[in-house]
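STRUCTURE:
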């Protein structure tokens, strides 16, 4: 039995549709997937081998044509179609398995990459926050350190000034103390001489007595006169008047000697009181100096301790900032690379799914067309067989 040219053309179109659908299969995996793809690659290779095993358009047309021209049983032609449809179904089944595995891999890869991006974002935010905190601590510590150093320098200058003032005050005190003690020594040397006048004969003059004194005694009397002039607690004019009277008088008057002794004792008491006063003032000054310098030194010790602590804070803050910068650099790279891989994987997975859907649709259309053609052929040959039988 010979097939018409129309039948052969329809068969050729059907085979071409299937060939085109098979050629569109292309497996795409997401880059850096976490699961092993070796098995999937083998499945893909097998699928490609199956597609290649199917006869090409020319081969299929030639096979069908040869069967029809050699009057082969028509069932053999039908079987050829059934086998071809079965092969396409097997291809779809294998492709379905691959697509299922592909989706699982994509889900795992995309989930992992999204987690990587999220974790990097969180770590980056925390590191940035830590850096801001450390920079704030560093700024406060540096400001406190500058104030600390300034206060230390001010207090050290203050301490130096107090030392200089204390030395000057002590030098003055020692000088005045020496003067007072010297005055008391002179008084103590002169007073016995004056008291001795009471034992002298009233007929003896003050000049005669003084001439009989040693040079030390005479000198003491001269200095004594000067002390009355220096210390204004008694009337120098009154003392000078008494001494003048005693010098001019041809004899020593007892009442003049007693008044002079009283004045000398008063002078000595005044000098002692003055010495006690300057000593008291000096002692209070020493106590004030000791207390003030002690407070300043204690403050300096505290400031030096704080300076050490602030230095440690500054070092720790700088170290914290360096660590934060390192973390920011690492996490920024991690986020950027994971985001890039995520985007590539999304594109690849989407493309793979689109190709799967397109290939599946083409196979379904091809199978439907094969079946329609097969039904048409069956109907065609059935009718022709009836016609030939009637003839």
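SEQUENCE:
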């Amino acid at each position: 039995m010979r097939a018409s040219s129309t039948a052969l053309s329809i068969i050729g179109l059907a085979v071409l549709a299937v060939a085109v659908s098979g050629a569109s299969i292309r497996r795409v995996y997401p880059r850096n997937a976490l699961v092993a793809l070796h098995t999937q690659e083998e499945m893909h290779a097998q699928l490609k081998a199956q597609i290649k095993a199917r006869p090409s358009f020319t081969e299929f047309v030639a096979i069908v044509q040869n069967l029809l021209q050699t009057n082969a049983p028509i069932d053999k032609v039908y079987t050829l179609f059934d086998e071809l449809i079965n092969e396409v179904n097997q291809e779809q089944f294998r492709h379905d398995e691959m697509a299922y595995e592909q989706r699982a891999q994509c889900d795992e890869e995309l989930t992992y990459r999204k987690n990587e991006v999220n974790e990097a974002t969180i770590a980056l935010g925390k590191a940035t926050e830590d850096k801001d905190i450390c920079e704030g601590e560093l700024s406060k510590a540096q400001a406190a350190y500058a104030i600390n150093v300034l206060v230390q320098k001010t207090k050290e200058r203050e301490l130096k000034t107090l030392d200089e003032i204390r030395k000057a005050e002590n030098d003055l005190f020692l000088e005045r103390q020496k003067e007072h003690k010297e005055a008391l020594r002179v008084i103590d040397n002169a007073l016995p001489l004056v008291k001795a006048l009471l034992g002298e004969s009233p007929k003896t003059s003050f000049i005669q007595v003084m001439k009989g004194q040693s040079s030390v005694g005479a000198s003491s009397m001269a200095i004594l006169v000067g002390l009355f002039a220096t210390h204004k607690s008694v009337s120098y004019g009154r003392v000078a008047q008494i001494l003048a009277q005693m010098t001019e008088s041809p004899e020593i008057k007892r009442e003049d000697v007693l008044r002079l002794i009283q004045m000398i004792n008063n002078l000595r008491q005044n000098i002692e009181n003055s010495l006690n006063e300057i000593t008291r003032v000096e002692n209070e000054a020493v106590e004030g100096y000791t207390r003030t310098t002690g407070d300043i030194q204690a403050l300096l010790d505290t400031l030096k301790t704080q300076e050490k602590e602030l230095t440690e804070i500054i070092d720790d803050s700088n170290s914290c900032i360096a660590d934060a910068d390192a973390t920011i650099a690492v996490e920024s790279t991690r986020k950027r690379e994971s985001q890039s891989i995520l985007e590539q994987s999304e594109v690849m997975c989407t493309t793979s799914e689109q190709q799967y859907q397109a290939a599946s649709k083409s196979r379904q259309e091809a199978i439907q067309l094969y079946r329609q053609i097969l039904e048409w052929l069956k109907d065609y040959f059935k009718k022709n067989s009836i016609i030939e039988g009637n003839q």
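REMARK: Residues 254-390 form the longest helix (137 residues).
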